[in-house]
Amino acid sequence: MTEARLATKAETAYDLVRAKLLRGELLPGAVIQQAALARELGISTTPLREALRRLMSDGLVELDAHRDARVTRLTAEEARDLVEIRRSLDPLAAGLAAERRTRQDLDLIRATADELLPLRTDPGPAELSTHRRFHVAIYTASHNSLLVQTLDGLWDKADRYRRLALEDGRSEEDLDRTHAEHLALVDAIAAGDSGTAAAVMLAHVDASLGARAVARLTSAAAQPVARSLRGLRGARR
């Protein structure tokens, strides 16, 4: 009985901490004050520790030998890796969805498309949730369970990079382009046009917030190097 209660508390703690991470309430690189967080969640540190271990497996939290916990930092390398994987797998899922979608799949894709809300600076859970449901509906219509599981597992990590990119804001032109791509995806999948569905999805990934996060983080990483080189050149004069 005790083990069952502990498992339930750990699951609850996992959901709550994960939500905080994805909403940006726990910032990348921040130390997690476990005692304070446990009090805030109304649980003991034991189920919280279980939740943190699971979040470490998700790549959202780092734990060291001294039992310290830290929110995983955002890096240009991980952002790039995510985009590279999505450039291959998202178009594959869209193409398969066009070939294999059922009437129920298509109804769900259309319904989630109708609910889509634009992702602007500091989006709330509702905006992020509608975006995810639309893409998951397309993934599910591929009827490839391993592909669906893989893409769904990437989503939490990718959302943190979307939030980073959104800090720079979005133009109306960018929002219109994204909306047009969503509509084009629905049309191509409905028409059974796998080639067009895959091509639209590839363009969608290439212009995505994740791709913008790669550029932002790469630029930020290069700035200290550039300053260092300028300092060296100045010292030689």
Tell me what the structure shows.
With 237 residues, the chain is mostly helical. It folds into two domains: 2-71, Arc Repressor Mutant, subunit A (Orthogonal Bundle), CATH 1.10.10.10; 76-220, Four Helix Bundle (Hemerythrin (Met), subunit A). Helices cover 76% and strands 3% of the residues. The chain is built from ten helices and two strands. The chain has helices spanning 2-22, 34-41, 45-57, 76-100, 103-115, 125-141, 145-166, 172-191, 194-206, 209-236; strands at residues 61-63, 69-71. Strands 1-2 form a two-stranded antiparallel sheet. A hairpin with a 5-residue loop joins strand 1 and strand 2. Helix 4 (76-100) packs across helix 7 (145-166). The longest helix has 28 residues, at 209-236. It is globular, with a radius of gyration of 21 Å. Mean pLDDT is 88; it is low at 224-229.
Order of helices and strands: HHHEEHHHHHHH
Mean pLDDT: 88
Low-confidence segments: 224-229
Top CATH class of the largest domain: Mainly Alpha
Name of the CATH superfamily of the largest domain:
GntR ligand-binding domain-like
CATH topology of the largest domain: Four Helix Bundle (Hemerythrin (Met), subunit A)
Order of the strands making up the biggest sheet = 1-2
From the alpha-carbon coordinates, what is the Rg to the nearest angstrom?
A: 21 Å
Helix content: over 70%
